[in-house]
Amino acid sequence: MAWDFSTEPEFQEKLDWVKQFCEDKVEPLDHVFPYAVRSPDPAVKAYVRELQQEVKDQGLWAIFLDEDLGGPGFGQLKLGLLNEIIGRYAGAPHMFGASAPDTGNMEMLAAYGTDEQKDRWLTPLLNQDMFSAYSMTEPQGGSDPSLFRTNAVRDGDEWVINGEKWFTSAGRVADILFVMCTNGMFVVPRKTPGVEIMPEPRNHNHIIYRDVRVPLDHLLGPEDGAKVLAQRRLGGGRIHHAMRTIAQCNLAFDMMCERALSRESHGKVIAEHQMVQEKIAESYAMIKMLRLFVLETAWKIDTTSTQEARTEIAAVKYTMARVLREVSFNALHILGSLGTTDLTPIQAMYSAAPTMGIADGVDEVHKATVARRVLRDYRPHEGNFPTEFLPYKREEARKKMQTVLDARPDLAASAEAYRKYFGRRP
């Protein structure tokens, strides 16, 4: 029977190395040189490359890719354990070649790209000589593909793209944009004429595509294959978000516990007040439940497929947003006024929680998906009462035991006495 919560000693050594590396080198770099990976400073860039080489030497580069796609092939469960550490530090995903939105875009290129497309875009993305963005959501239709209007029309040896996209994260600083159209997924260099990035929002960009022309070989995968590619991309993206959310929740939890033992109120440390204890206890349980749910979902993906795990992925997606919201809110309250400032990570976590409930599809859509898929395994009961209606259960139980009762008169007499006694009870 394979039922275990332990980690192989060899992989635990990898996890220990990642933890130490992030504490000793990644976190200091984040504070001294914010956004170091994208820095134009040659000295900073050279130092980043040195750190990334250490990661590569450990066989931990591009940890999200399977072996057949050019990665180490850890699988989702091991990736989850890694992300529990990496997700705690803003710059760590870049250091491991595993930062969104590049990860999902690289997965699509690796799975659906031609050899020429991989040489042109995948290799530079893996080497971080190039960065990308995913342009899917639209102002009027959100993330519902059936409501999208952006389309591409073939004109000779080019595609002409027209449409409007909203919340293209990091679009402003991307080299290439993966644009989901009604009739396919297209790779569009950001500096292509007709790509107009609006001034606001600053980080999650509003982009207008006006007569944008790209060569025919900029179509990724089959024509009319956008929905298939999108599901491939977003399924992995959602579970990866959940993995990193565990790290953020753990960080918030560590901060609230430390603070609870450090502040005093009414003559005692606030950790001794029951309402503070309640917040800590509830946060602890929520994080533990989320972690087990995420790891079980990752295990199911490894043993089946992303498609088979769609119900779990959707449920994890809206669960992580709620847990992040509740845990960060509890931490904010325990930190008090300090928690409302930008002097700790708590305020950013709390403000990010609503975004987590909207990004990659709003939580309400995923809840509806889970309900529909779960209900497939159920059937309506017959008659006016449910299967667990106790009079029905007793009648069915007596039928199942009748052979035994017929063979044992003493047991039959006891059964009749029980029936009369319990039959009188309200």
Radius of gyration: 27 Å
Can you write the helix and strand succession as a string? HHHHHHEEEEEEEEHEEHHHHHH
Mean pLDDT: 92
Binned, the helix content reads: 40-55%
Shape: globular
Helix/sheet category? alpha+beta
Determine the oligomeric state from the structure: single chain
Largest sheet: 4 strands, mixed
The number of distinct helices, counting runs of at least 4 residues, comes to 13
Please provide the count of β strands: 10
Strand content: 5-15%
Q: Strands of the largest sheet, in order across it?
A: 1-4-5-8
Could you give the distance between the termini? 45 Å
Taking pLDDT < 50 over at least 5 consecutive residues as the criterion, the unreliable ranges are: none
Explain how this protein is built.
It is a single chain. The chain has about 425 residues and is an alpha+beta fold. Helices cover about 55% and strands about 15% of the residues. The protein has 13 helices and ten strands. The strands form three sheets. A four-stranded mixed β-sheet has the order 1-4-5-8. Strands 2-3-7-6 form a four-stranded antiparallel β-sheet, with no helix packed on it. A hairpin with a 2-residue loop joins strand 2 and strand 3 (about 160-170). The radius of gyration is 27 Å and the shape is globular.
